[in-house]
């Protein structure tokens, strides 16, 4: 089946004219029509647009490396003239008036935007159950969640609807669903990929990253979306990395640190077992494993759940029922604000707005927000010091495998604890990747997470590719 092939395989076949883009897009659309009524990965599919673009590409003689390849986009990233709901009722009928920078880059590369995928409301969630529109299920076990907040993108790739998708990662929202669905998910360095056109959750944490069925496929897309952008003041001025033509050398001699804080209480025993086996495979590839310490990483989750709601509270203030999106049309301006936000936001969004507003309020700002920023600096310093000694860090991606639908939705603390292994990379702004490393006894996927120093995505992709080949 064409829709099961990797980008590398598809690109070769397209450029040799062994297959057409129309055939590839049709294969993906047929699979979506066949199965997405059960999976609920997509909020909208752009069938006619995709087929039209594919036909135009098929009339060309010479194709760019990614031209004609379909991709799915998390519904938090603006695609011009298409709905962008951010999974929220408050933006249910909002039509994007411009392309996000990453979408502009993908279009210039000739990739075909196949549709928008479901996500937790404003990326607030770890299960894709807080979406205002539908609940996405895990294609490997439809009684379980696909992870979140980029659960629709992960499910779309895992179900073979598309070879690759974009997600966003604020505290683990690319890596955690990638682990739950048995695919690869790359969170780039903060500022490596422009956030212009991304619905903001927490602006000092948000990143956009690819989700795919291979490390090399992540590299293909990352090399297109990364790079400088004057429309994002936090974006690095470095040029996009030339990863597409890289041969992915072996990782012999690479030093991989094992944070002793990462395998404590709460990590599933089967995950620990598969993680140990993954470390043995990395050693077999020539990597050197050594135990290290990140003493302040144990505070990263607390830091994140103070700073992230504070930033979310400020970012979501723009949804007031006046400028765009849903409006309750009440009798007075203040009533309109209150009714619009009360009816438009879901429970998790309201919870985080309230938490963030409290954190930023007079009398609590110094005790919570300021202190969390100080501890964040300590976490960053830990990472800076440790990457002077090692090349990569290795941990499990998640403390558990995919949990049952409804299991944690009414227990926010239990849901938040699922981020304990992923948030540190966001707090520090460093890149990380989730790699499939086996299954538990229930045949649920397990993820291995590798983390690198700022702008060292190449090392991550080298290690991931080498591990993938060994598998």
Q: What are the secondary-structure elements, in order, as H or E?
A: HHEHEHEHEHEEHEHEHHHHEHHEEH
Radius of gyration: 21 Å
Q: Termini separation (Å)? A: 22 Å
Provide the helix percentage: 25-40%
Which band does the percent of strand residues land in?
Answer: 5-15%
Q: Work out the count of structural domains.
A: 1
Biggest beta-sheet profile: 11 strands, mixed
In DSSP terms, counting alpha (H) and pi (I) runs of 4 or more, how many helices?
15
Which class best fits the helix and strand makeup? alpha/beta
Strand order of the largest sheet: 1-3-2-4-6-5-10-11-9-7-8
Low-confidence stretches: none
CATH superfamily: Amidase signature (AS) domain
CATH class bucket: Alpha Beta
The whole-number mean of residue pLDDT values reads 95
The CATH topology label is: Amidase signature (AS) enzymes
Total strand count, please? 11
Global outline? globular
CATH architecture: Alpha-Beta Complex
């Amino acid at each position: 089946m064409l829709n099961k092939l990797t980008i590398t395989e598809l690109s070769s076949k397209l450029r040799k004219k062994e297959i057409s883009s129309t055939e590839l897009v049709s294969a993906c659309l047929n699979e979506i029509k066949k199965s997405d009524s059960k999976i609920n990965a997509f909020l909208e599919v752009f069938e006619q647009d995709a087929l039209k673009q594919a036909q135009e590409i098929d009339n060309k003689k010479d194709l760019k490396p990614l031209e004609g390849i379909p991709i799915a986009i998390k519904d938090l990233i603006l695609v011009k003239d298409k709905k962008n709901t951010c999974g929220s009722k408050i933006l249910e009928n909002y039509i994007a008036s411009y392309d996000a920078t990453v979408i502009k880059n993908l279009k210039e590369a000739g990739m075909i935007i196949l549709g928008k995928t479901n996500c937790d409301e404003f990326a607030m969630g770890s299960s894709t159950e807080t979406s205002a529109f539908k609940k996405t299920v895990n294609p490997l076990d439809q009684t379980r969640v696909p992870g979140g907040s980029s659960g629709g993108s992960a499910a779309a790739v895992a179900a073979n609807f598309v070879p690759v998708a974009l997600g966003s990662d604020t505290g683990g929202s690319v890596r955690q669903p990638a682990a739950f669905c048995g695919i690869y998910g790359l969170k780039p360095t903060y500022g490596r990929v422009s956030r212009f056109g991304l619905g903001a959750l927490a602006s000092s944490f948000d990143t956009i990253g690819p989700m795919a069925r291979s490390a090399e496929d992540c590299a293909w897309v990352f090399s297109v979306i990364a790079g400088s952008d004057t429309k994002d003041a936090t974006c690095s001025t470095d040029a996009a990395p030339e990863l597409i033509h890289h041969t992915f050398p072996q990782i012999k001699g690479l030093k991989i640190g094992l944070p002793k804080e990462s395998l404590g209480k709460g990590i599933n025993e089967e995950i620990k077992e598969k993680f140990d086996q993954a470390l043995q495979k990395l050693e077999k590839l020539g990597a050197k494993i050594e135990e290290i310490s990140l003493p302040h990483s144990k505070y990263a989750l607390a830091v994140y759940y103070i700073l992230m709601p504070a930033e979310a509270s400020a970012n979501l203030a723009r949804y007031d029922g006046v400028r765009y999106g849903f409006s309750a049309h009440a009798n007075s301006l203040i009533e309109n604000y209150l009714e619009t936000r009360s009816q438009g936001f879901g429970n998790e969004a309201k919870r985080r707005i309230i938490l963030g507003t409290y954190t930023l309020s007079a009398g609590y700002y110094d005790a919570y927000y300021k202190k969390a920023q100080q501890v964040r600096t300590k976490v960053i310093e830990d990472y800076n010091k440790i990457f002077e000694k090692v090349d990569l860090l290795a941990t499990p991606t998640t403390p558990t495998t995919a949990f049952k639908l409804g299991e944690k939705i009414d227990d926010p603390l239990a849901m938040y604890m699922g981020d304990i292994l992923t948030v540190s990379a966001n707090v520090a702004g460093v890149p990380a990747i989730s790699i499939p490393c086996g299954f538990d006894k229930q045949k649920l996927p397990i993820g291995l997470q590798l983390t690198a120093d700022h702008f060292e995505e190449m090392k991550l992709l080298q290690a991931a590719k080498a591990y993938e080949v060994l598998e």
